[in-house]
Amino acid sequence: MIPYGRQSINQLDMDAVLEVLQSDFLTQGPKVPAFEKRVAEYTGSKFGIAVNSATSALHIACLSLGLKKGDLAWTTPNTFVASANCILYCGADIDFVDVDERTYNMCPDMLERKLESAQKLGRLPDVVIPVHFAGQSCDMKRIWQLSQKFGFKIIEDASHAIGGSYLDDKVGSCKYSNITVFSFHPVKIITTAEGGLATTNDESLAHKMALFRSHGVTRDPSLMSHEVEGDWYYEQIELGLNYRMTEIQGALGLSQMDKLTDFIEKRHSHRQRYDELLNGMPLVTPFQSSLCHSSLHLYPIRLKLSDISKSRSEVFKYLKDKGVGVNVHYIPVHTQPYYQKMGFKKGMFPESERYYDSAISLPLYQDITDDNLQYVCKVLKEGLV
Ligand SMILES: *Cc1c(COP(=O)(O)O)cnc(C)c1O
Question: Residue 81 C-alpha to ligand 1 middle, in angstroms?
Answer without folding.
Answer: 8
